[in-house]
Amino acid sequence: xxxxxxxxxxxxxxxxxxxxxxxxxxxxxxxxxxxxxxxxxxxxxxxxxxxxxxxxxxxxxxxxxxxxxxxxxxxxxxxxxxxxxxxxxxxxxxxxxxxxxxxxxxxxxxxxxxxxxxxxxxxx
Amino acid sequence: xxxxxxxxxxxxxxxxxxxxxxxxxxxxxxxxxxxxxxxxxxxxxxxxxxxxxxxxxxxxxxxxxxxxxxxxxxxxxxxxxxxxxxxxxxxxxxxxxxxxxxxxxxxxxxxxxxxxxxxxxxxxxxxxxxxxxxxxxxxxxxxxxxxxxxxxxxxxxxxxxxxxxxxxxxxxxxxxxxxxxxxxxxxxxxxxxxxxxxxxxxxxxxxxxxxxxxxxxxxxxxxxxxxxxxxxxxxxxxxxxxxxxxxxxxxxxxxxxxxxxxxxxxxxxxxxxxxxxxxxxxxxxxxxxxxxxxxxxxxxxxxxxxxxxxxxxxxxxxxxxxxxxxxxxxxxxxxxxxxxxxxxxxxxxxxxxxxxxxxxxxxxxxxxxxxxxxxxxxxxxxxxxxxxxxxxxxxxxxxxxxxxxxxxxxxxxxxxxxxxxxxxxxxxxxxxxxxxxxxxxxxxxxxxxxxxxxxxxxxxxxxxxxxxxxxxxxxxxxxxxxxxxxxxxxxxxxxxxxxxxxxxxxxxxxxxxxxxxxxxxxxxxxxxxxxxxxxxxxxxxxxxxxxxxxxxxxxxxxxxxxxxxxxxx
Lengths: 124, 569
Known about the structure:
The structure holds 2 protein chains of 2 kinds.
Chain A lengths: L1 H19 L4 H21 L26 H31 L22
Helix pairs in contact in A: 1-2, 2-3
Chain B lengths: L1 H9 L2 H20 L4 H27 L8 E4 L10 E4 L1 H21 L10 H17 L3 H20 L4 H32 L4 H7 L5 H21 L9 H7 L2 H24 L7 H21 L3 H22 L2 H33 L42 H18 L5 H14 L22 H31 L11 H19 L1 H16 L2 H8 L9 H5 L2
Antiparallel strand pairs in B: 1-2
Helix pairs in contact in B: 2-3, 2-5, 3-4, 4-5, 4-11, 4-14, 4-18, 5-6, 5-11, 6-7, 6-11, 7-9, 7-10, 8-20, 9-11, 10-11, 10-13, 11-13, 11-14, 12-13, 12-17, 13-14, 13-17, 14-15, 14-16, 14-18, 14-19, 15-17, 15-18
C-alpha cells in the first residue's frame, strides 16, 4: 500500500512540475493542480496508512492510541484542499484575463516563436 | 477609559484583537456594497488606526518584562496548549505588527485620493491583507502560519490586480503561479514536520526536535529545508526573487506600499522558526550565501534601473538581502541591528513607492515627452543624441535667478532626497544609524567601547567577522554607493532635467502619508537609542527561546469555559 501511494504521489508531483515549467498558461494551471493533488495525498499519508482503524471520536478501544487513526492530517488536508481549490479558481480567472489582454496564452504574454510542439498557429 | 485600557493591556484578548479587527471590518465593508468608497475609506482608516493603537499597546505590554520577555499567549478555542491553536505575542511579533500597521495606515490614507476607485473591493482586500499579516506575526502554530500566509497572499493577489491592465495581469499571473507552487512546498514541509514529530505547535516542536530518533530527525530537517525555501521565496532571496520588482512596480502605489512589509513576513518566519525550533542550524551558511547574492543582485539592479518604481523594488531586495545575511551570521547584536535596519528600510521604501506615484503623475501631466515610451533615453537628448527642441545645454537660456522653485516641486524633491538618504544609508537619517549598527556589531560584536582583543571568547564567539563578515561589510558599503548613484541619477532625471511641465498638484491626503512615514524614519533616528535597546532585548530573547516555550506550554485555559475543555486530555 505504501509503495503504491508513494509511486502515485511521485508520478503526480513529477507530472505537475513538468507541466508547471511549460510555457502555456493552461499547462501551468494543470501542473499546479496535479502538484496540489500530490501534496494533498502526501499530507494525508503523514497520519500513517492504516486499514479499519477507528476515529478518535468513537469509544475507548484501549489504553494507547495505536488502535486509532490520526484525525489531524484529515483536518489539515481538508483545509489544504479548500485553499488550493480557491487559489486555482483565482489563477484561472487571471489566466483568462491575460488571454484577453495579450491575445495569446503564453505565460509571458508574448507570442513565442513557433516550436516543434506548440507552434501550430502563428497568428495571434 | 483607564479601566478599559488596563483590561486591554493585562488581558490576553489583546493578542487576538489585531486579527479580529480587520476581519470584522472587511466583512462589514463587503456589506456596504461596492460603490460606497468614501464610507469604506473612513471605516478602513478608523479600523487601521485602531489596529495601530492595539499593536502599540501590545508592544508596551510585552516590553515590560525586559530581556526575559513577557510573552502574551491567547489560546484560541480555550484548548490546552499543545492540542489547540495558540497565538503568542513576544517582542518580535509586536514590533513587526507596529511596522505593518504604520505602513498600512499610510497606504490606506494615500489610496483615498484616487487609487481606491480604479477597481472594486480595494478596502476589504486591504483589511484582509492586514489580517493575514497580523496573523502570520502572531501565530504560534505551523499550520496556522500556512493559513495566514494564504490569507495574506489571497488578498495580495487581489490588491496586485486592483486596477487591472496588461502589466498588472501579467505580473499577477507570475506572482500567483509562483506563490501557489511555494505554498505546495510549505504544505509538504509542514506535513513532513508533523509526520515525524506529531505536533504542529511551534513550542512543542522546539521541545521535541532535540529528542527525535535519527531517522525522524532527518525528515524534520528535510521539512525545515522545504519550509525555508517557501519563506525565502516570500522574502525575495536570490534566486527566488525575479517576481518582486515587476510585481511591485505594476501594483497600484498604495498596494505596493503595503507589499513592502509583505516581503518581510518571510524574514520574520525564518527568524522565528530558526531561533525557536532549529537553533544553530547548519542552514545558516546557506541563508548567509543567499543573502549576499541577493545584495549583489540588488546592487546591479539599483545601478541598472531607470524607473523609480524599479529603484524602489531593488532597494527592497537589498534590504531583504541585508537582513537575510544578518540572520545567517546569527549573532544577537547583528540581529538587533538588522531588525532596526528592517524597520527603517521598510518605512522608507513604502514612502518612496508612494512618492513614485506623485512624480510619475507629474511627469505624465505636462511633460514634453511621454515618459513611458522613452524611459530608456536620456531626458535631454534626442534619439540621435542631439539636444531636443527647446533645450539648450549651453548657458544661453534665461537667467535662472529670476524664478523661484515652486513649493510643491521643492516638497516632492525634499521627500525624494530624504527617502534616498535612508535607502542609501547616508547620514543623518535612520538608514545611516542602521548601517552603522550593522557594521559596528560586525566588527566589534561585544559593543562599542570594549576592547577587541582582550575579551575574545568571553561570550563563546569569535571576535573577528570572518570571511563572510568581511564580504558583508564590503557589500554593505557598496550597496550604499550603488543606491546613492541610482537615486542621484533618478533625481537628476526627474527633478533637474525636467522641462516644460507644470507644478505638481499635491493633495493633503497624498502628502501626509509620505510625510508621516518619513517622520517615522526621523523618529527612529532621534529615538535610535531606545529602539536599539528594545531590539537588543528582542534579539537576546530570540536566542533564549525557553521563555517563549514555557509561556506557551504553561498557558492554562480560562476557567469556567465550555465542555470542550473538559474533553481535552
